[in-house]
Amino acid sequence: MKVTKQMLNKELQSSYWMLKISSSLLMNKAGIGMLNRNSARARGKNMEGIHGEEKFIKSKNGGPDIRIRVFKPLGHDESLPGMLYIHGGGYLLGNPEDYLTVIKSFIDARPCVIIAPDYRKALDAPYPAAFNDCYDTLLWMNENAKELGIMPEKIIVGGHSAGGGIAAAVTLKATDTDEVKISFQMPIYPMIDDRQNTASATDNNAPSWNAKSNRLGWGLYLKSLTEQGIQIPAYAAAARAGDFSKLPPAITFVGDIEPFCDETVSYVENLKKAGKPVAFQLYEGCFHAFEIMFPKLEISKKAWAFLLDSYSSYIDKYVYDK
Q1: What's the per-residue H, E or C state across 10-76?
Q2: Is 76 exposed, middle or buried (0-12, 13-18, 19+ CB in 10 A)?
Q3: pLDDT tens figures, 170-194
Q4: pLDDT digits over 217-274, tens only?
Q5: Cα–Cα distance between 24 and 35 in angstroms, integer?
Q6: What CATH number should be reported for the domain holding residue 92?
């Protein structure tokens, strides 16, 4: 998909050239390294209005201890819904502190306890490192529900972009193994198809995330598997899943000019075919992560309202009413 400035939502057109230039950092290892060094400065940061705590938990797969952040609303003593929130970054970069505004938005919309793992990135440790870190965090949440003040067996799994991809994969495994009950999933514009052969992913040159950055992300994340000639499993790329019958309800949205558009739509259609409730919106002229980068624009406000309203409704329906 070749994307021109005129294809963008009118509110986003003024950001076109700025993002075209800045997104070049996402197309090479040097740029990713620079962004990660900058992101590391926010490590341990908290946000006013919510309680934040840093913990280290044991890996169940022989990896290093996993750094997690535990975020809670202020002034709540009762047991609350628990959410595993997995940050984005193309499997290559970032940490939970980059998404404090997102985390606080969920807590403000409906009080919950959010556990956000700082999973290993593909430059240092390819698949299954990130997936294992996040799945181990889910298991730890369920095992320590009482101490965390969360409702056991009613966990929400969500994330943006690559975090949405891991969220979908973690949900797949949790339902395959029946180790943890997932009330609903929120893989927001998820990075789930390593084949990158859909119309929206092929030759996509949109601002923000595009076909070049997509190839880099998937190439590094799946490096160990491809070098060994191992078939890519659904826990690495959830679009490869063949059975959606056990999966819980879902919430997601995507812009129609970003690489993940078609794979998100396909994931939604597969869930619906399996009889699963899905809240979904497609936003015209919107590139990857538009609502996070430019939250004050009207189109972004609409996306945020859809996400938080759906999340609130799903908590009422699938957590409290179960």
Answers
A1: HHHHHHHHHHHHHHHHHHCHHHHHHHHHHHHCCCCCCCCCEEEEEEEECCCCCCCCEEEEEEEECCC
A2: middle
A3: 999 999 999 999 999 999 999 999 9
A4: 999 999 999 999 999 999 999 999 999 999 999 999 999 999 999 999 999 999 999 9
A5: 12
A6: 3.40.50.1820
Vertex 216: Cα angle to 286 and 224 (nearest 5): 135
pLDDT digits (tens, 9 = 90+) for 9-27: 999 999 988 898 888 888 8
Torsion sign (Cα): 21, 38, 134, 175: negative
What the block records as the tokens of 264 is 């998100």
Instruction: Show the domain range for 236.
Output: 5-320
User: What is the 8-class DSSP label of residue 248?
Assistant: -
Report in angstroms the alpha-carbon separations of 151 from 69, 80, 187, 190, 253: 18, 6, 21, 26, 27
The four Cα atoms 188, 194, 200, 203 give a dihedral, to 10 degrees, of 130
**Cis-peptide into 128, omega within 30 deg:** yes
pLDDT band at 75 (very low <50, low <70, confident <90, very high): confident
Pairing of strands 182-188, 82-86: unpaired
- Report the number of distinct structural domains present in the chain: 1
Report how far residue 36's alpha carbon sits from residue 90's, in angstroms, rounded to the nearest whole number.
Answer: 12
Checking if the pLDDT of 322 tops 80, the result is no
Alpha-carbon distance of 115 to 148, in angstroms, equals 9
Among 59, 177, 184, which Cα is nearest to 112's? 184
- pTM over 0.85, yes/no: yes
- Is the Cβ–Cβ distance between 87 and 116 less than 8 Å? yes
In this structure, which amino acid lies at residue 89? G
